[in-house]
Amino acid sequence: MRLNDEEQALLAGAAGEAVRRAIEHQIAVGDFFGAADFVPVTQAHVMADTESLGEAGVAWLEQLSAGPHAPPQVRVPTITDPRGTDFARAAELGQAEWMLALERRAIAAFRRLGVTMTDTCIHYQTIAAPTRGEHVAFGDTGVVSFSNSVCGARSNFEGGPSAIAAALTGRTPRYGFHLDAQRQATLRLRTDWTPATLDDWGALGALVGRHAGHYWQVPVLEGLERPPSSDELKHFAAAMASFGSTALFHLVGVTPEAGRLADVGGERLPLAARFGLDEVRALRRSWAGDGGVDVVVFSAPQLSLFELRTLAGLCEGRRFVRPLLAVTSPQVKPESDRLGFTAAIEGAGGSVLSGMCFYQSYAREIALARGWRRLVTNSAKLVNILGGYGYAPVLRSMAACVEAAETGVVA
Amino acid sequence: MSAVILTARHALGRVVEGLALVAHDGFSARYDLDRIAGVFSRPTHALAGQSYVDRILVLDTAKGGVATAWMLHEMQSRGVVPRAIVLNTVNPILAQGAAFGGVTLLAGFDVDVTAAVAHGATLRLDPARRTLEVLAAPG
């Protein structure tokens, strides 16, 4: 990689050992992908739940933030993805004290680095949406997919160590979706069906992602009969990233870089596949379940205020016989409380959790502690992930999920 | 003289030798592994139930999930980690995680590497030369 004078100095240790190691890591990744140089970034977003970090990752963070003198400080606004718990509700989740102790250590280390603990995967809805052309270093695949595609920002998937490195150096290797050429469509798809509900949007995202198959494919989708809402695009993007590792997509006439098909080079591509209701039904059948329900979860991504509003309305007059968990951000939770949504959900027997995400919160251990296996959700992303954690997940609409919590049976 | 030497477009890490676990499935440490038991745990994965510890994983592509960047490091600390990962296509997370966790990684070939390498073959990976060499057929 070509380094400017400042980057040469960082590599020589002018800003301390932590920053030297950070840029060394970035050069290794940049060289791997053939990056020519670095690009400055305006923000970083760090995924670092302690189930992923483990003892080794937390110790690494502590060492990084200890420093021989003053701890190194992030150079750009740096925020965090969901944590591994909602401390106030940990007992309800069956989480053990050692999990909470790891979380406390990680949070303390992040604070020493100057990181702002936002604990959210929906910061584009709640804190600051990135703007078109803005170069950022974001973690969480759904965040990157939404930011790239819907906001027109520029980021690769930045896993925790790389996002921290970007935060400390203020830059990231210029490869992948930071480059104009990589943002052109590579896969032309059509849908004959416009989703109606959030789980439908997730299912369509899953189909597109599964067909795309890998990170470097950039799907362009035609055929939608109406523009999706922010929450619909959130579920669509998160599912596509989960199933296909997709970091950038275009919707013709909807997303900012694809006003017309030709704007992203789509007119030169053959139509690779069409999706309709039959494909969606087949996808849903692959997670059929046995009709029983142990737990209902709304998470992955965290819920917006509007989702909580809808959920609160569905909960009125009901009494749940199964646990219902609704997970949101620390920014949305107080508003949900203030507007009475939390009371409506919890009045029916549900729980509104804050600052965590279900699958990032020791989901395997929770399953063992609480005896939860048959999980019903409206998140296609969550369904995709939890199969590997020992759950038998089922995808249903929010309304059907609420019914399942009330009856103990999934229709 | 080995029968098969493949050249990767992307490589990092150190020279390693080992037995190959091969499937045309994707890879994510979060989605696919029981990282405590050291086995593939996703029921629909072609390698479900098999131990990945000290094996060279030869798979199709990296799947979503930024957690892999941390998890390779954590698995390395406990010695419950693949010796290397070989993919047709890679995403940044695998590259970042391999660099951070000290796991050898090769990706991008002119052929489908999951078809070119037999399950159970003995491999030698040389990242500096970007080569994958089949030392021995499955035993």
TrEMBL record, chain A:
Occurrences of domain Phosphomevalonate dehydratase large subunit-like (ranges):
1-403
Named from the GO MF annotations, one term is: lyase activity
- Highest taxon of the lineage: Bacteria
Pfam families documented for this protein: AcnX
Q: InterPro entries attached here?
A: PMDh-L-like_dom
Q: Keyword annotations for this protein?
A: Iron, Lyase
What the entry lists under PANTHER family is as follows: DUF521 DOMAIN PROTEIN (AFU_ORTHOLOGUE AFUA_6G00490) (PTHR36577)
| Record's protein name | Phosphomevalonate dehydratase large subunit-like domain-containing protein
Q: What is the lineage of its organism?
A: Bacteria, Pseudomonadati, Pseudomonadota, Betaproteobacteria, Burkholderiales
From TrEMBL, chain B:
For the keyword Lyase, the answer is yes
Q: Which residues does the UniProt record annotate as the domain Phosphomevalonate dehydratase small subunit-like? A: 27-105
- What keywords are assigned to this protein? Lyase
Q: Record's InterPro entries? A: PMDh-S-like_dom (IPR002840)
A molecular function (GO) held by this record is: lyase activity
List the SUPFAM superfamilies hit by this protein, alphabetically.
LeuD/IlvD-like (SSF52016)
Q: Does the keyword Lipid biosynthesis apply?
A: no
The name of this protein is Phosphomevalonate dehydratase small subunit-like domain-containing protein
Organism of origin: Rubrivivax gelatinosus (strain NBRC 100245 / IL144)
